[in-house]
Structures are given as structure tokens and as C-alpha cells.
Amino acid sequence: MYAWSLWLFERGLALVNLVAFASCYVELDGLSGPNGILPAEEVVMAKLRSKVPGGRWQGCKAYPTVFWWLRADRRGLHLVAWACFAAGALALFDVLTPLMIAVCMLGYVSLKTVSQPWLGLQLHAILIETDFVYLLGAPLRGLCPSICAILVSWLLFRTMLGAGVCKYGTGDVTWRDMTALQYHYETQPLPNPISWHAHRLPPWVHRWSAIGTHVIEGPLTLLVFGNAWCRLAAAVGFVGLMLVINVTGNYGSLGMLVAVQCVLLLDDATLVWLHNCTAGWLVGPLPYPAADPCSWWAFLAGLVLALPYVGVSLVPFYTTFHGEIPWIQEIAGVLKQYRLLDVAMLRAQDAWKFAWKRFDQSRLGFRWRVLWSRLISIYSVIAPWTICNRYALFGSMRQRRVEVVVEGSNDRVAWQPYVFKYKPDLSRKAPPFIPGHLPGLDWRLYFLPTDILRGAAVPQWFAAFINALLDGKREVLALLRENPFPDAPPRHIRSSVYGFKFCYDETDRTVWWKRASLGVFFEGSRETSTDSDP
């Protein structure tokens, strides 16, 4: 029975939506407002209307957002954000929970469409799909809460296993030799003070932490489909991993969301056992809902709702495993050194090819190909809604930290830096703790320098950001911690790439970072339009 579990899950999901909208709202004007970096109405919606000339409904299919009917100006953006915030608050207090979660999901999808550079991360997609999965099982939540538990468990399995598989699929050397965490704490998007200390741990701690990560995101995910004790072990592993990740870094509401998903791995009997074993401090006071009357017809109706989603979700899930995975090829190379194993592998390979050929030529194989093509077609239709996604979290590890430093000047001689709120800099302030908050500009700037060093063109949003600084837009400057030109904007701005490392100066422990210049890649001035240097 999952009556208590579902009640706790609903309250937790409402809280995560509240936190996510609060994080989005505080930067909405500076990122997507009329005077923001990429104004939603003048830039984004204008471009979408030019791409889809077929009308509002046709446009909504390709780019789902309520702003086909509302103006995406400051009033419209704030209206959607406040409506979703109110819906999350009502759901938190168990007022029309399915309807309120639906409002939150539609609002988040709408804001994501018009704020794509800022809300286009996997962390946002996980929340949208979790809302959708809950809504899929919500019609039967009073009759068969187990359906919601099955759907959320399937999503959690795909998320965690996808994170584990992608570490091999990318061919990242550091994950294969277990040295990834020797770099992670220093090179992650937004470190905090604990990251500085975690980076100094002995290599053997990092190595065993990497091994534990592989176990949790690999074999442990299969326990999701086991009995109550197996699911409890999986939940402990997932929550423990997220706890370490979020204590040593700033990842918004990711850890909170995974913990909420893990609630539905525990049935009511497990929750009662945890409540009794911990004297109520772990689970807290349990509500007293009606017993789970999951009859056979309600369960079958739930399967009718769930199976189409599970089938379509196999399409993005399959892409996680598609293609050659380097570590499998390496293991095969080692085994081929021994003749007996080599012969056995060749025979197994021949047997697999023969069986697959027979299946492919059979009537069942033909029906499978037809079904798979239809699933792909359905997925292509719903993909813009991000309600069914491919997840590959932390797939590759950077071995050095590269940051963008933006500086302004009036004479091209004395350059003064703009200081971001959450990114590393040379000030003596410690890296911040920002639990629950996912700053869009700071996160997007984290990925920019690596693309620049690979020869990619400067993206539109960054050129727009530089122009906003040259124009002295107050909403954009509010996204920064320090503006070196409070009276008037500078005449010139340049953007440089620097390599950053943690500083361990025993004589001065107030210095957190040291850096080395890697060159200037972008310049702009008020006299001419911004352009990029070769």
C-alpha cells in the first residue's frame, strides 16, 4: 500500500515546485524581462512566431507556452510565475493537489520555452517530467496509489541508471580510472566552501567515492524493482549520493527532488517501520488516510494509463545505451588475450547474430519494428514538452576549471572586473551556499568557456549580455554582485578566459582561488556593435 507514501510525495513535490519557481522568479526580469538579456516578448516570441506561421495552436505544438495567448512582457511573466507559486502553495496544503501540480507543470514548461538558455538544463527537465508522471497516475490516486509509485520508480530508475551509463558512454578517462572526484569539487559549476575542503581529501577517499558512485548509479538501480527491503536500500543509496552532491556543491533543488521521488520507493509498512524505529524524527507525524483499496480493475486501468508512457520513454532511454561503449570494447580486448574466452565470445556473438536475424525476419520482429517506429513518432511529437527525456547527469568530468571574466574600461588601459554573485573570483569572499537556487546566468556562463576554447562561435545570449552591460540596464546589473561602474556604464568591455584553481595558502586562508589568463575572446564598445575576436 502506498497511501501514506503518496501523501508525503505530493507535499514534497509541491515544495520542490515552490522552491523552483522562487529560484526562477528572482532572476526573471534580468534574464527574460523587457530590459533583460533576452527579452521574452521582443526576441524569443518574435522568433518563434516567424518560425511557425500557422497560428497559435500550431505554434503551441512546436513550442508549448501560454505566451502564444499572453504577452511575454513583465506583467505576463510575473503573472505566470505568481500563479504557479500560488498553485504550489495550495498543493502544499493539500488543496486540489492534482490541479495545482498541473498548473505548475504548464507554467514551468511555458517559462522554459521563452527562457531556453536559462531553463534548458536537465535539472529543469527532471522536475517537469516528475510533475507529468504524477499527473498521469493522479486520476487513480485514491483507488490505486501503487500506479503513481510504479511510474515514479520507473522515472527514478531511468534517471539514476542513465547517469551511471553515460559515465562509460562518453569515454571519460577519469571515471574509468576512478580519479573523477579528484577534479569534481574544484571544477563543478558552482562550488561552495565545503568543496574547498572536499578537494583536499586523500586520493583513496576520492577513489572509493567514485567506486561508490558507480555502484549506486549501476547495480543499485535494479533494486528499485525488488521487494520492500531492496527498495529501501535503493532509496538510502540515492538519497545518500544526492546528500553528498548537494552538500559539496550548489545544484538547486536536484537533491530535494530525488529525495521526494525516493519516498515512493517506500510502501506504507516501511514508513511505519521507519517512524517507529526513529521515534518519529525521520518520517515525522504520519497522516491517517484511508487504506489502499487497490482493486484489480483499478490496477488494470492504471496500467492502461502507464504503459503508453513507459513505452514512449524507452525511446530516449534507448539512446543512453545506443552505440559502442568504450569500456565494453576494452574488456573484450582483455578477454581476447585468452584463447578459450576468445572462442566462447565468438560463439556467443554468432549465436546472438543468428537469433536476432531470425527474430528480425519473423512476424513478431516485423510487429516490433512497426511498434518502435510509432513510439519514435509519438516521442517526436511530445519532445518539446520535455515530459519524457533522456538523462545523462555528470557524464564527463572536467580536469581543469575555465572561467569567463568580464571587465570594463573607459580608456582600454585600466580594466575593472564585473563580479558575479556565485561564480569564482579573486575576492576574499568564500564560495556561497545557495540551497534550492539555480542561478541561470552563472550556470550558463560555466559551460561557455569550454565551447569557446573548442572554437565555437559566441552565442547570441552572451553578446546580448555584453550589450546590456554597455547600456547599463538595471535589471541585468542586478544579476551581478558588484558593478564597478555605478555612475555610468563603461565605454569598452572585454571578456577573457582564465584557468582557476583552489588556493591553499597556509599563510593567508582568506584567499580561495588563484587564476591564470588564457586570453581575450570577446570585445565590445558603445561606439560600435559587439564583435568577437578570432
3D architecture notes:
The chain is an alpha+beta fold and 534 residues long. The chain contains 23 helices and seven strands. The protein has helices at residues 3-25, 28-32, 40-51, 56-62, 74-92, 97-114, 116-119, 122-137, 146-169, 173-176, 181-187, 193-198, 203-216, 228-247, 254-263, 268-277, 296-321, 326-335, 339-361, 363-382, 440-453, 460-471, 474-477, and strands spanning 401-409, 416-417, 419-420, 480-482, 492-502, 513-525, 531-532. It has a five-stranded antiparallel sheet with strand order 2-1-5-6-7. β1 and β2 form a beta hairpin. α5 runs antiparallel to α6. The longest helix is centred in the middle third of the chain and has 26 residues, at 296-321.
Task: Jot down its keywords.
534 residues, 5-stranded antiparallel β-sheet, two-stranded antiparallel ribbon, 23 helices, globular, disordered C terminus
Helices, strands, pairings?
Layout: H1 3-25, H2 28-32, H3 40-51, H4 56-62, H5 74-92, H6 97-114, H7 116-119, H8 122-137, H9 146-169, H10 173-176, H11 181-187, H12 193-198, H13 203-216, H14 228-247, H15 254-263, H16 268-277, H17 296-321, H18 326-335, H19 339-361, H20 363-382, E1 401-409, E2 416-417, E3 419-420, H21 440-453, H22 460-471, H23 474-477, E4 480-482, E5 492-502, E6 513-525, E7 531-532
Antiparallel strand pairs: 1-2, 1-5, 3-4, 5-6, 6-7
Helix pairs in contact: 1-5, 1-6, 1-8, 1-15, 5-6, 6-8, 8-9, 9-17, 14-15, 17-20, 19-20
